[in-house]
Structures are given as structure tokens and as C-alpha cells.
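Q: I'm building a small set of examples for a reading group on sequence design. Run inverse folding on the following structure and report the sequence directly after it, with nothing in between.
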């Protein structure tokens, strides 16, 4: 990787924002995180201290970071690259101001929290200045296993693609987290099909090299968010934690993590200053999130795809099978190989895949490399704003289908927005 000086700002320094500190700094000696934009500065500083302790950033580098509460406090030319890692709604609300900084933009998925929001984002991005770049943060396109599957598809070993079967299983611990955090408010997150599944919808599009025409969907809650006499407001004020396996502290893996959680969110002198406690009761029914989501897509050329997401699995993985008229490939996200079988089951072999040590198996590192290549050389990334728009429209079409109990023309949602880009 060619090293060039670049000043980086991060807008929204929560879980996703601080997880990118290491990839941003790991291979570019000229990269410097200069600015954190976050409304809860004490919490942002706490997270940065953790990154120092993990060795992701030196104490000397961290000491140079300036913390501000809004875009209005930015100085002209203070950042060359701005990572938009706040919530979907916040990113949408402040996209105009982000574009006006003149910085290159990295937009975490999803591109917005609803269809009207993506119109606002597209309008803002139309004002990008010559040379000002924008990239979508679809890191599955950079995951080593997904990359290997894409190469196999392009090699022709599967022949004509007929069907994609895609299931995402989240563990109870991971899945329940969406019911605890701000994601439970779909007016901020867009719901599971946007805040989480748009990532997977885009992966299907990536494999097929096209966007879908129609969508049919069913969403239901079968485990979390059903209410009942045991539901309370928050874990830290609950009188039933002794009987509840989903008490947030029980799901923490160590005493150290439990103490950390309290010190950040729920103690009287907690680091967080905005009242956010990260421990809403997973049984509360005042949410529109669904824990069981099934979506069917029709693509040009007759290709079909199905996607299923469950939030209460004993373990978690993305399992993807792509069927062709000459062969089939099976992917399990966390295993270091793909399995290929020819059509007559005469050739069966596993293809080794080498990953990395970052939290997403090398995907974040590869994605940030692509981001730097875009900025420094103009190399187009695998994930574009157009792809972000398409994935959002797939989710919106799926929501409409579930309400109407009918197939929805997702192409009619996507095309008008793509025509504006």
C-alpha cells in the first residue's frame, strides 16, 4: 500500500466507528485520525482510550485527535476523508453537511433509514465536487471467502446461475443486541432489513452482477419483542434479572466486561452523558423489529434468490449456496474454505480461503485498502453508492411486500433513484 498523508474524521464514534481505527491506520503510515465528531464526547474519548490499550493507535497519535460535537465546529480543510458511521438516520440528516466539507466520504451501510431518506442522500451526493469521492461500506464484498466465491462464479465453473440460497443466523446474544440498542427504533435504524440485511442483499447482487426486479417477503416476531408479564423497561432497573437468561450482564463474557458495561452505560457516574443505556429489555413489545425475516427475489434472466434471517440461533454464520447448471458452491462465512460440487456430483473438492485477523475476517482491512485506492488513484471500489441505493430499495420493497402480502416491483423503486446518479 502506497503511503500518503491523509487527515481522517469519523462521524459517530460508536461500535462501528471505533472498530475501523485499526484498519485505517494499519497500513498507511501517512494516515492520521484528526477529528471525532460525536455528540457524546466523553464516551468517544473512552472508546479511543480502549483503542490505545488494544494497540490500534498510539497514545501520541490519539493525543492529536480533536473532539467536536457537530459539523459546525469543523475547521476548513480539517479532514480529507470523512467516515459516516453514525446511525442510518443521523447519517441521512447530516449528509448535506458532510458533502459540504469537501472531504471524501465513506458511508457505512445502509445508505439511509428509509426510501425518502435515500432520496435526500442522493440529492446531497449529486453535489460532490470534482474529485470528491464517495464509497459505500459494504465489507462483505471484501471478505476473503466472498471474494473467492465471486471468482469461482466468474470462472464459469457453475455455468448459468439458477438459484441463490442465503441464510443468516445470528446467535441469541448477537440477535438480542438489536432489541437492546438504538436499532430497536426503526425510525433511526430502518429495521433489520436495512440496518443489517441490506449488507446481505448487496452480497447477492454482487454474486449475480445484477439488481432484482421483484420481491416477496414475510417478517414476523417469534421470540423477542413479544411483551408479556416479565417484560420490563431496562435490565439495570429490572426486578427479574435473577430469572432472565437475557439480562445484559449475564451475556457479557467476563467480570471485566461486566464492570466495563456498567462504567460506560449504567453507573451513576457512567461515561455516557446522553442517557443511552444499551440495555433495553429484549421482551418489550414497543418495537417494530422482527426476529424472523424471509425474502424472495426475482432477477433478470429468470434467476431466483431467497434470503432468511433469524436472530435466535445457538450459533451464527452466513451460509450461502449458489446453484448453477454445471455446478454448485457452498459458503459458510466462518469456515476457511468453499465446497464445490459439479452437476453430477463427480467432482467434489474444498477450496481453501485465507483470511485475516480483523473482526470481520479480513473484510474491513481489504475494504479500507480499496478506500485508499479510490482516494489516491481513482480506482473504483467494489461497493458503490448505486449498490447502496439498490440494497435500500430491496429492503423497502420487502417491507412493502410484507404489508401487502404480495409481490412488489422493486425495480420501480430502484430505477428512478439510479437515474439521478
Amino acid at each position: 500500500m502506497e503511503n500518503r498523508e491523509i487527515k481522517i474524521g469519523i462521524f459517530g464514534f460508536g461500535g462501528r466507528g471505533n472498530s475501523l481505527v485499526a484498519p485505517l491506520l494499519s497500513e498507511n503510515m501517512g494516515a492520521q485520525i484528526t477529528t471525532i465528531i460525536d455528540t457524546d464526547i466523553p464516551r468517544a474519548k473512552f472508546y479511543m482510550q480502549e483503542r490505545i490499550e488494544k494497540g490500534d493507535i498510539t497514545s501520541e497519535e490519539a493525543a492529536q485527535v480533536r473532539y467536536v460535537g457537530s459539523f459546525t465546529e469543523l475547521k476548513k480543510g480539517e479532514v480529507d476523508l470523512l467516515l459516516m458511521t453514525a446511525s442510518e438516520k443521523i447519517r441521512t440528516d447530516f449528509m448535506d453537511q458532510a458533502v459540504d466539507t469537501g472531504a471524501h466520504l465513506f458511508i457505512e451501510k445502509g445508505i439511509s433509514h428509509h426510501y425518502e431518506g435515500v432520496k435526500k442522500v442522493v440529492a446531497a451526493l449529486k453535489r460532490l465536487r470534482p474529485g470528491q469521492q464517495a464509497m459505500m461500506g459494504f465489507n462483505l464484498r471484501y471478505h476473503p471467502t466472498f471474494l473467492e466465491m465471486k471468482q469461482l462464479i466468474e470462472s464459469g465453473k457453475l455455468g448459468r446461475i439458477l438459484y441463490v440460497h442465503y441464510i443468516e443466523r445470528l446467535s441469541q446474544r448477537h440477535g438480542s443486541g438489536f432489541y437492546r440498542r438504538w436499532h430497536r427504533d426503526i425510525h433511526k435504524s430502518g429495521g433489520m432489513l436495512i440496518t443489517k440485511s441490506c449488507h446481505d442483499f448487496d452480497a447477492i447482487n454482487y454474486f449475480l452482477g445484477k439488481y432484482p426486479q421483484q420481491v416477496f417477503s414475510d417478517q414476523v416476531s417469534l421470540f423477542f419483542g413479544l411483551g408479556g408479564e416479565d417484560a420490563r423497561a431496562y435490565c439495570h432497573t429490572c426486578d427479574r434479572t435473577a430469572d432472565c437468561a437475557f439480562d445484559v450482564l449475564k451475556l457479557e463474557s467476563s467480570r471485566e466486561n461486566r464492570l466495563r458495561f456498567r462504567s460506560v452505560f449504567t453507573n451513576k457516574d457512567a461515561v455516557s452523558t446522553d442517557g443511552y443505556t444499551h440495555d433495553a429489555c429484549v421482551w418489550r413489545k414497543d418495537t417494530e423489529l422482527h426476529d424472523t425475516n424471509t425474502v424472495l427475489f426475482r432477477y433478470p434472466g429468470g434467476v431466483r434468490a431467497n434470503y432468511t434471517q433469524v436472530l435466535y440461533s445457538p450459533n451464527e454464520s452466513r451460509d450461502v449456496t449458489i446453484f448453477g447448471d454445471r455446478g454448485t458452491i457452498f459458503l459458510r462465512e466462518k469456515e476457511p474454505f468453499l465446497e464445490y460440487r459439479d452437476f453430477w456430483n463427480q467432482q467434489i473438492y474444498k477450496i481453501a480461503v485465507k483470511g485475516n485477523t480483523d473482526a470481520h475476517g479480513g473484510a474491513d482491512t481489504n475494504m479500507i485498502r480499496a478506500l485508499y485506492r479510490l482516494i489516491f488513484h481513482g480506482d473504483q471500489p467494489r461497493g458503490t453508492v448505486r449498490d447502496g441505493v439498490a440494497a435500500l430499495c430491496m429492503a423497502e420493497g420487502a417491507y412493502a411486500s410484507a404489508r401487502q402480502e404480495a409481490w412488489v416491483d422493486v425495480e420501480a423503486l430502484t430505477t428512478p433513484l439510479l437515474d439521478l446518479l
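Residues 7 and 78 are 7 Å apart (CA to CA).
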